[in-house]
Amino acid sequence: MPELPEVETVKRTLNALVQGKTLSDVTVRLPRIIRRPDDIEAFRLMLKGHTIQAVERRGKFLRFLLDGLVLVSHLRMEGRYGMYRPEDPLNKHSHVIFHFTDGTELRYTDVRQFGTMDLFAEGEDLELPPLNKLGLEPLDPAFTPERFRTLLAGKPTKIKPLLLNQAYVVGIGNIYVDESLHRAGIHPETSAGALTAEQAERLHRAIVDTLSEAVEAGGSSVKSYVNGQGESGTFQQKLLIYGRKDGVCYTCGSPVEKSRVGGRGTHFCPNCQRLTP
Length: 277
Ligand SMILES: [Zn+2]
What we know:
Monomer. This protein is an alpha+beta fold and 277 residues long. The chain contains 6 helices and 11 strands.
């Protein structure tokens, strides 16, 4: 599943491709991708004639700003966008097609069909689900060490599931949570409220650095989420712990351990990331 750096990369790629394009029509081939409005014909008619001013990101969601409307799109497991010409053969998994007045098409393809789209009037989208309950943006200046410490204070929850909970901090998924905890030298099962001020500060720094470096590298997807455009991310080559089950810790040489925390496969170094009571 794409996390913040991958969605940020998709956002940047899409801005280069569709900014300023005007919709002449929309074809919805799999209605359940569209959650709002429930009427697909209304969805189509609302969008027709609108111009994409910009594509923004909130957490793992894309926000297409369409003069007066906002289309909120979540890629979930396998969703991806691609630019095509009408004569290009249609993939059977291309579920939503945005036709532009210049003759090009933006196709949304999703093999697993878990992706979602919600259409709002401008200003409404941040006040309603799915965006209204989202937590802090980790690459926003408002995400300070102090705010992060306050957020952790008194929480008995294990730190890994807390970081995955989008109501606290957005955009972090299984890859970047394992990387950040490893960099900070914190065991994934440590109770959030039990972290010292110094540990919380180290973790804050690790989250910001890991995500920033991953954005810089275009994310860590083996595949690109926007087909044929730009390059797929290279951060997977820089991962220190995630996915390295049979490897050793680059810092101390201990075998990397894999366990389950909060139902998620978790990689950590049992020596560098000790569980302190
Ligand atoms: Zn180690």
